[in-house]
Each structure stands twice: as structure tokens, then as C-alpha cells.
């Protein structure tokens, strides 16, 4: 078990203390296997279960003393087992939320008592006992690297003489070793699917990096060397005893901006090792996360590497100067198709006029495939050459001069930001935009250029301009006074915000952040926090390197500074490039660290809460990037967010829940929300007085409720009623969209639908079908479609007048809305009275017209909705024929490539073919060959509806013989071998109709259908039994007729 925990389990690499188990599907699978092993241990191995551990397994538990019953002594202070060891120690002791267990028998009981909490208990136990074998058997049996001889030593002891305790240890260690192998094997499939490195790929990447390394300032690295020059026959440089662990080679990399990095290139990826120990031996232990290649590793470790890589771009691709503006979009790492434009006149003026005036020849050179996935090969867009006024030029020069003054004024050691490097940094960051990703729902903000000189400037604008002179040229005291005076202006006013940019004061404010004067840093951050609400200012701060300095400030011991820096990062990191910068400079880990403070529920300082609030705000902004979501999880942010979710302060709850609902789009976060017990707190906060908090809680439930267990948890914690109550707040459309979305997903479970009926939610939803935005209508209609699972709710929708607005929505244009409307109308059409209203409103014609929609989801949902309409309409045959070209259209959809479309169309054809005239028309349009072509499918749902369509299409002319000619009979025989009863029944009915044709009987008999049908004859399903018997009878009649003709 120790080996599996060390090698297969996924642990967080961040945070204080030892790592914790990540909430991942792999870890959940391992934990479930360990729980099963512990639960069954006392039953399968009763003697070994009584063995007393060398030391107790000890961990912090969530179990309460009330869950312990028979076999335990429960008092106010502690719980202890009646069973004791030889020295009188209880085998289980619970004291002050710490649980100590001394035997497998008690471990089995704990897993049974924990019930739904057993996953959390197992996780806590293993995190507290990384190598449990040491506690169970003793330190001499610890998990070791290389050859483990503990079993051999134990075996020698058994051979030397009979010792019951040694023999018991032998059995236990073999059982644990067997579990270890089982855990490693179960994780092997998933791990083996990951991309693996090989010696050739590593060597090629190293050689390529060496070409761009050296002592120059513009090189990507100072040096890169192997630790060993000897190459084995397989291409590896690692010693053989490390190759068995997947090691390929070891490198010493010297970046320009960090200490030397000692890295291991392993088949699983690249990671940081422990470096050289005394005696020049290497510490092979992994000290970082695993990266897919060396470049990805360096991009996360060295900002200078990325910056210089951008400078090397043109020589790297051997690109002529006149083709500098060619643009590439990377496929592997990029999640956006464009790059951010260069936004600011102040930085554009610094680009040489010759470079700004170049134009591309149109030719695109292809990058080397070696660097395809690095995200560093995108060329820059042309920089526009705007005309700058003389005044602007003077201001820019003055701000550059001030930068050096401030550097000398505050501290000789302060690293002042150099404004003339802004354009270089912009190049680097623009490249980084390509590989960052944002949530599906969020479009990256696009700043709009401000038209200058068209409006009169306010007095505040000139006031800030005057004060900026004192900020630039004054001593620290004058600078602080000027900053305080600036804050007297209304920073929410756009003219005041842009004054800082136009006067060059923004660059100085960022310079002040890199000084050692705390008062100046505080004053600067307070202003930057306010003006960064402006989209142009946000982009300017990122271009001038402000984010990097703010991330550095997060390490400051001054709590006020950390709060201001985090809150400013929250404002700036609202676009992709800024979010990537925060992650690249280690900001995610530091922001997660701000959440680490005293336990919630105990007295804690207001300042700790404020720090956590600001950290959560910044994480909320950063979490719109998919990679940042992963980084937050890796940094151990999920348990900390879960902890803060338990507090009652809405100021911190809003950013915490906002971050969770943003991250809930990822499966790993949904799993964590379930296992960390967050649903209870999300439900609790639905009753909050703060509408924004209610909205985020409802949104989180909406994203998580795809999982049935989470839907059940929402119901068990009483979350359905507050969701129903919130529907009355129809003025707040964002809240209404989140609440209706949560109701929609929760209504997937029939048990929840019954609760919604009790709360009269259906009546309220019907009232929301008119005068609502599309994002609300999509959810409302989706919820009604799910509520139609109950017959009484279908009648309720009719009684409340919901059918006409639903039919009216069939003319909408939004694809998601159409899918939900089709489903709701189709569900309502299963009631005859509802169908009459739908028909009178021309709803069937509208559904039929949606079959022409280019979206396959709309086509499929429309075809499914037509099935109950055709089945329940009065004189449905005539109704279908009244649609000009309708039958030809639905038959043509059998040529679709989408399986759901094919399945739904087959179901519709099965209903339409019950009318003889319609069947004749469809036959003329070639329905038989098209259905026959689909027969060789592996999809059970399609098999069922296809067989039903074939069955009903046999009722016209020579269609039975035609199905045989088009080779549809053989596949239908094979359908009988499936384990799905609905497929078997449909296939038997189809075969019964096909067996009326003699040639088909021969094909069936050759396919071995008789033996299969004889089994079905004994079925308790009457239609299946009759169809099977009829088919066998037809085959038998043909055989008798053949014998009679042959022998007279």
C-alpha cells in the first residue's frame, strides 16, 4: 500500500506541511479499493484482523461520538472500544476529534460506521499516515526505493522456528503487498494513457535549447548540461537502477534569473529533483509537479526564459525582417484564435518607425515542429503607428527620467521598473495570450481606443496632472502627500482614471511598488486598485509589468499591502494575458496561501478574514482560465475554499462561492464539491439576504447537478424549497437565470420533481415563459421539460396555460432554447388533451419545420417530439400528409451522420409508418434501403428504434422481400444476442414480420435464429413471446412446405 500511495496516488505539491491527496478520479478509485479492502478484512481474515498494530493509525476525524454504538464506551470526553490490547490499551480511541485505531478489526468497523463519510475518513487517514505499514508492523517494514528485502527477512525468521507473531506478520505483509499490486495495476491503465517521453525526444529538445543558450543577455539560458556524458545503448544517461523507475537523464540548467535547476527527465515527464548532495550524489526525489517537456517546465520556472524566447523568435524561425508581421495560431496549447492588440499610444511610440511601418508580404513560414506545442511561436500583429502630439512625447520622456530618480531616491537596492522594457514585455505577454484559456461563457474584454481631443477635459484631470509632478520629482514624504491628495479626487470618474495614463503617472505608480518605502507602496496600490476598474488602465498595468511586482508583494509581511495587492490583481486579471502572467510568476500559489489562516468557527482576527477575502477575489478573477483552475487545485485551494464556505460573513462568501461556481465547470472540482461536503453550505447560503451570494450558490448547484449524487444531496439538505422561493424574485434576471438553471438540473431526478410539485414550482415556472431574456427561458423550458416526467405535471402546465407560450417559442432562433422547447412540447404531447391544443396552434407543423434546422441537436429533439405528436393526434395520417414535402424530408434525414438524429428519425418513422398511405409514400422515397444501410450498428438505442421502424415498414407491398435483398435480416438476427430486453423485443417483432417472406426465413435459419427464438418463447414479456413463437412457426411452415414439395 505504501508503494501505491507513493507512486500512483496524486499528491498536492504546494501548501505548508506535507502534501494532501488531490480530489481526482484516480485517487477516488484508489481510496475506494482501500476502503473495500478494509471493510472486508475482518470477514475474510478474522485472525489477522485481531492483530494489534505496533503504533496506532492516528488522524483528525469528522466522525462524532454519537455514531459509535454497541462495543464502545461513550462518554463526554472520549469514545473507546471495549476490546483492548494485552497491555490494556483500547483498540480504538476517539478524543478531541483525533481518532486512534490499533487493529484491522476496528478499522473495518470505522469504515462501516462512517457510511457516506468513509471516503473523507480514508483520505484523512492516509494523509496523516503516508506509509501505514510502518505504524502497523514497525519501521523495519517501511516502503523503500529499490529492492525491498523485508519479506525475505521475515521468511527467514519463520524458517528458523515457529513464532505465532512472526507468522501473523508474514500473512499481513503478504496481504498488504497483494493490495499494493492491485492498486498499482488499477492505476496503470490511466497512467499509461499519458504522453510518455523517450530518450530521442529529450536529446532533440536539449540540443535545440543549447543552440539558443550562452552568456549573452538575449539568450534563453546561460547553460544547459547533462550530469553524465555516458550514453547507454537505449539512449538513456541515467544509471540502470534508476532507469527501472523511468528516469532517462538528469540536467543542470542555469537560467538568467534563477539559481541552477537540477531536473530529471523521466518517461512520465520533466520535474525538479533534490540537486546534488554531499559527495556529489544526486537526490533523485521529486520536488515539483511533473511537466510534459523541458520547455513547459522552464516557462513555469523562469519568466526571463519566456521573455528571451520571444526575442529569439525571428532568428529561430529564420524569418526575414520584412515578414515580421506574419501571424501564426498554435493548435496544441492555444485555446483562443487571436492575439490581444497593442493598445496604448504611450508604448507604441517607443517602437521604431521602420518596424512600425513594415507590412507583410502575405507569405507564412511554417514553424519547426519541435516547438509546435510550446506556445512561443506565434508572431506579433503589426504595431500601429499613431501620430503622437508633442505634449505626449514630452510627458513620456519625463516619466522615463523620473523612473531613474525614484530608483536613487528610495533605495539603492530597489529594483525599479524600466519603462523602456515595456514593449519587450508586451511582446512576451502577447505570445502568452495564445496558450491561455478562459471559461466558455466569458469573452475576453477588448479595449476600445479613446478618441482624444474631441471633448473638454474636466478640472479633476488637470488637478491630477499637477499633482503628478510632485509624485515624480518629490522626496518620499512629498510623494506620499501627493498620493493622498490624489485620492481625494473621484477615482470612479473616467477622466480621472485616464489622467494617470495620459500624464505618465501610471508608470511612476508602478515604479513605486518596487521600492522599499511601505507608505509609497500602500498609496500607490490604493490608487491602482481604484483606477484599474478601467479597461484601458488594466491593460496598461499588465503591459508595464505591474502584475509581476504585485505578485511579489504577496510575500510581504505587511498584511495591508498583501490585501491591496491581491485586490488590485483581482481587478487587473480580467483578461487572458493578465491571468496567465499571474500564474506564470507563481501568483496562484501565493493567492491560495492567503486563504490559509486560523480555523473558521473559532475567534479570528478581522484582518485574517480581509486577507482571505482579497485572496479569494483574485482567485475568482484568475479562475476564468482553465489552466488556472488546475493550478488552484494543485496548490491545495479546494480544502481551503471548503473551509471558508462554512463561515457566515457574506463579504468573503461571495468571492469564495464565485470561485467555486467558476471552477465547477471542471469535473475534478465537481467531485471535490461533493466529497468535501460543500453542497450543504451552498444550500444554506441560498437563504442568505445577499442576492449576489444566492446567485453564485445557485450557479454552482446548476453546474454540479449533472451528477445524480449531488442532486440527491441538494434534496437531502433541503435545497429545493429555497430554490423555489427564489423564483419569486423575477426582477433580478441574473439571479433568476441561476436559480432556474439549478431547478432544471435538479429536476432530472424524479424524486426532486415530486418535491417541486409540492412547492408549486411548476405553476411559477409557467408564469416565467413570457417576457424573459433567453438565458432565463432556456432554463425555465428545460425545467418544465424535466417536470413533465410526471403525468400530473403535464396536466398542470395545460391548466396554467403553459402550452400556447411553449408552442410560440418553437419560432425562436436560439439553438439551446429550441432543443429544450422541443423536449417540453414533446413531453406535453403524450397527453391527448395537450395534443389537441398543440395541433390547434399549428405546433406540429412548427416541429416539422425544425427538421430543416442545420443543428443536429435541434433536428434530433424535433424528431423525438414528433413521435408522441403523431401517436396521439386525431387522424395523424392525414395531418402528416398535409405537410408538403414532410415525408421526403424525414426520410432524407436517415442519411445523417449524427447517431442521435438517426435514432430519433427511426422512432418517428416507426410511428408514421403505422398509416398505410404514409408508408407507401416513404417507400417511394427509398426508406427501405436507407433503413437497411443502418442495420450494422453497435448502438443499442439505435438498434431498438431501427428494428421498430423495420417492423412497421414491412406492412406495404414487397418491402419484406426488399429488406432481405438489402441485407437487413442478418443484422436483425444478431440483435437477438444483445442483453437489452427492449432491443430483443423490437428485433423479434421485426423478424416476425420479415418471416412472412420465404427467402427471409432461409436467411434467419442460417443465422441460427431458431435457438435464440426458442429461448424467447418462454419469456414473460407477452409481445416478445408472441413474436418469437410466430417467427418460429413461419420458419417451421416453410420447412414443412419444402419437405412436402421435395418428397411429395
TrEMBL record:
Ranges for region Disordered: 335-456
Spans of repeat ARM:
545-587, 885-927
Composition skew (Basic and acidic residues), residue ranges: 383-398
Source organism of this protein record:
Pipra filicauda (Wire-tailed manakin)
Q: What is this protein called?
A: Armadillo repeat-containing protein 4
List, as start-end ranges, the regions of compositional bias called Acidic residues.
433-445
Q: Where is the composition biased (Polar residues)?
A: 367-382
InterPro entries to which the protein is assigned, alphabetical: ARM-like, ARM-type_fold, Armadillo
Amino acid at each position: 500500500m505504501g508503494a501505491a500511495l507513493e507512486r500512483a496516488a496524486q499528491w498536492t505539491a504546494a501548501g505548508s506541511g506535507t502534501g494532501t491527496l488531490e480530489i481526482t478520479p484516480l485517487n477516488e478509485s484508489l481510496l475506494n479499493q482501500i476502503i473495500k479492502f478494509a471493510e472486508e478484512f475482518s470477514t475474510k481474515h478474522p485472525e489477522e484482523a485481531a492483530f494489534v498494530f505496533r503504533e496506532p493509525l492516528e488522524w483528525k476525524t469528522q466522525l462524532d461520538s454519537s455514531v459509535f454504538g454497541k462495543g464502545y464506551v461513550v462518554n463526554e470526553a472520549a469514545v473507546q472500544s471495549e476490546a483492548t490490547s494485552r497491555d490494556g490499551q483500547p483498540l480504538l480511541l476517539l478524543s478531541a476529534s483525533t481518532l486512534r485505531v490499533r487493529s484491522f478489526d476496528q478499522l473495518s468497523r470505522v469504515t462501516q460506521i462512517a457510511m457516506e463519510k468513509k471516503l473523507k475518513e480514508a483520505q484523512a487517514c492516509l494523509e496523516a499516515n503516508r506509509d501505514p505499514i510502518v505504524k502497523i508492523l514497525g519501521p523495519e517494514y517501511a516502503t523503500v526505493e529499490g529492492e525491498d528485502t523485508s519479506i525475505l527477512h521475515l521468511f527467514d525468521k519463520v524458517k528458523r522456528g515457529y513464532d505465532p507473531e512472526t507468522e501473523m506478520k508474514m500473512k499481513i505483509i503478504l496481504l498488504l503487498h497483494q493490495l499494493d499490486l492491485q492498486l498499482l495495476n488499477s492505476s496503470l491503465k490511466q497512467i499509461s494513457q499519458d504522453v510518455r517521453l523517450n530518450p530521442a525526444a529529450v536529446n532533440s529538445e536539449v540540443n535545440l535549447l543549447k543552440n539558443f543558450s550562452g552568456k549573452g543577455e538575449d539568450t534563453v539560458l546561460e547553460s544547459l548540461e547533462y550530469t553524465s556524458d555516458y550514453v547507454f545503448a537505449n539512449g538513456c544517461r541515467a544509471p540502470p537502477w534508476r532507469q527501472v523507475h523511468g528516469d532517462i537523464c538528469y540536467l543542470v540548467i542555469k537560467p538568467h534569473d534563477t539559481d541552477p535547476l537540477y531536473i530529471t527527465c523521466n518517461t512520465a515527464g520533466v520535474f525538479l529533483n533534490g540537486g546534488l548532495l554531499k559527495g556529489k550524489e544526486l537526490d533523485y526525489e521529486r520536488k515539483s509537479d511533473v511537466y510534459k517537456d523541458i520547455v513547459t517546465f522552464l516557462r513555469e520556472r523562469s519568466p526571463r526564459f519566456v521573455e528571451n524566447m520571444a526575442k529569439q523568435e525571428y532568428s529561430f524561425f529564420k524569418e526575414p525582417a520584412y515578414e515580421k508581421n506574419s501571424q501564426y495560431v498554435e493548435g496544441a496549447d492555444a485555446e483562443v484564435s487571436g492575439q490581444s492588440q497593442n493598445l496604448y499610444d504611450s508604448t507604441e511610440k517607443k517602437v521604431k518607425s521602420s518596424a512600425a511601418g513594415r507590412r507583410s508580404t502575405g507569405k507564412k513560414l511554417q514553424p519547426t515542429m519541435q516547438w509546435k506545442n510550446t506556445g512561443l511561436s506565434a508572431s506579433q500583429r503589426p504595431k500601429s503607428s499613431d501620430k503622437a502630439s508633442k505634449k505626449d512625447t514630452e510627458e513620456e520622456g519625463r516619466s522615463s527620467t523620473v523612473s531613474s530618480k525614484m530608483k536613487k531616491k528610495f533605495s539603492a537596492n530597489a529594483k525599479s521598473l524600466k519603462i523602456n522594457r515595456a514593449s519587450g514585455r508586451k511582446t512576451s505577454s502577447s505570445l502568452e495570450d495564445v496558450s491561455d484559456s478562459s471559461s466558455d461563457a466569458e469573452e475576453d474584454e477588448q479595449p476600445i481606443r479613446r478618441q482624444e481631443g474631441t471633448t473638454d477635459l474636466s478640472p479633476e484631470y488637470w488637478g491630477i496632472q499637477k499633482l503628478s509632478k510632485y509624485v515624480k520629482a518629490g522626496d518620499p514624504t512629498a510623494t506620499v502627500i501627493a498620493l493622498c491628495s490624489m485620492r481625494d479626487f473621484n477615482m470612479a470618474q473616467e477622466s480621472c482614471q485616464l489622467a494617470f495614463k495620459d500624464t505618465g503617472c501610471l508608470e511612476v505608480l508602478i515604479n513605486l511598488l518596487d521600492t522599499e518605502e511601505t507608505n509609497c507602496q500602500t498609496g500607490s496600490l490604493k490608487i491602482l486598485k481604484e483606477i484599474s476598474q478601467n479597461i484601458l488602465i488594466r491593460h496598461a498595468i499588465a503591459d508595464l509589468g505591474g502584475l509581476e511586482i504585485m505578485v511579489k508583494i504577496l510575500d510581504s509581511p505587511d498584511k495591508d499591502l498583501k490585501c491591496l495587492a491581491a485586490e488590485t490583481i483581482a481587478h487587473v486579471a480580467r483578461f487572458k494575458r493578465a491571468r496567465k502572467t499571474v500564474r506564470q510568476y507563481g501568483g496562484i500559489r501565493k493567492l491560495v496561501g492567503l486563504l490559509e489562516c486560523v480555523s473558521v468557527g473559532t475567534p479570528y482576527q478581522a484582518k485574517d478574514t480581509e486577507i482571505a477575502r482579497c485572496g479569494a477575489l483574485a482567485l475568482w478573477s484568475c479562475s476564468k482560465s482553465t489552466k488556472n483552475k488546475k493550478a488552484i487545485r494543485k496548490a491545495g485551494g479546494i480544502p481551503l475554499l471548503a473551509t471558508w464556505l462554512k463561515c457566515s460573513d457574506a463579504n468573503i462568501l461571495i468571492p469564495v462561492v464565485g470561485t467555486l461556481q467558476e471552477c465547477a465547470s471542471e469535473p475534478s472540482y465537481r467531485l471535490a464539491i461533493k466529497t468535501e461536503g460543500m453542497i450543504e453550505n451552498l444550500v444554506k447560503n441560498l437563504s442568505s439576504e445577499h442576492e449576489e451570494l444566492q446567485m453564485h450558490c445557485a450557479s454552482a448547484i446548476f453546474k454540479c447537478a449533472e451528477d445524480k449524487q449531488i442532486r440527491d444531496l441538494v434534496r437531502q439538505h433541503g435545497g429545493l424549497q429555497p430554490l423555489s422561493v427564489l423564483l419569486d424574485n423575477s426582477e433580478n434576471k441574473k439571479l433568476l437565470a441561476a436559480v432556474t438553471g439549478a431547478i432544471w438540473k435538479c429536476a432530472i431526478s424524479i424524486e426532486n420533481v415530486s418535491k417541486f410539485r409540492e412547492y408549486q414550482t411548476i405553476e411559477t415556472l409557467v408564469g416565467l415563459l413570457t417576457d424573459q431574456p433567453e438565458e432565463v427561458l432556456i432554463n425555465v423550458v428545460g425545467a418544465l421539460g424535466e417536470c413533465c416526467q410526471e403525468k400530473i405535471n403535464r396536466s398542470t402546465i395545460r391548466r396554467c396555460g403553459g402550452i400556447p407560450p411553449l408552442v410560440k417559442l418553437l419560432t425562436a432562433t436560439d439553438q439551446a432554447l429550441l432543443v429544450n422547447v422541443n423536449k417540453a412540447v414533446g413531453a406535453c404531447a403524450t397527453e391527448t388533451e395537450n395534443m389537441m391544443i398543440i395541433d390547434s396552434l399549428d405546433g406540429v407543423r412548427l416541429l416539422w419545420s425544425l427538421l430543416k434546422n442545420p443543428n443536429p441537436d435541434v433536428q434530433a429533439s424535433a424528431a423525438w417530439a414528433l413521435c408522441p405528436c403523431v401517436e396521439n393526434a386525431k387522424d395523424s395520417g392525414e395531418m402528416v400528409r398535409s405537410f408538403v414535402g414532410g415525408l421526403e424530408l424525414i426520410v432524407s434525414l436517415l442519411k445523417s451522420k449524427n447517431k442521435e438524429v438517426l435514432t430519433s428519425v427511426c422512432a418517428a418513422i416507426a410511428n408514421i409508418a403505422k398509416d398505410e398511405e404514409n408508408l407507401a409514400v416513404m417507400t417511394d422515397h427509398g426508406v427501405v434501403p436507407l433503413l437497411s444501410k443502418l442495420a450494422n450498428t453497435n448502438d443499442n438505442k439505435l438498434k431498438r428504434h431501427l428494428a421498430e421502424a423495420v417492423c412497421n415498414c414491412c406492412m406495404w407491398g414487397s418491402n419484406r422481400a426488399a429488406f432481405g435483398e438489402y441485407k437487413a435480416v442478418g443484422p436483425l438476427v444478431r440483435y437477438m444476442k444483445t442483453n437489452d430486453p427492449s432491443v430483443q423485443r423490437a428485433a423479434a417483432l421485426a423478424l416476425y414480420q420479415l418471416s412472412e417472406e420465404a427467402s427471409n426465413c432461409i436467411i434467419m435459419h442460417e443465422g441460427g435464429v431458431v435457438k435464440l427464438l426458442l429461448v424467447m418463447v418462454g419469456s414473460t414479456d407477452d409481445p416478445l413471446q408472441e413474436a418469437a413463437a410466430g417467427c418460429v412457426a413461419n420458419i417451421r411452415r416453410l420447412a414443412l412446405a419444402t419437405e412436402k414439395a421435395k418428397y411429395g
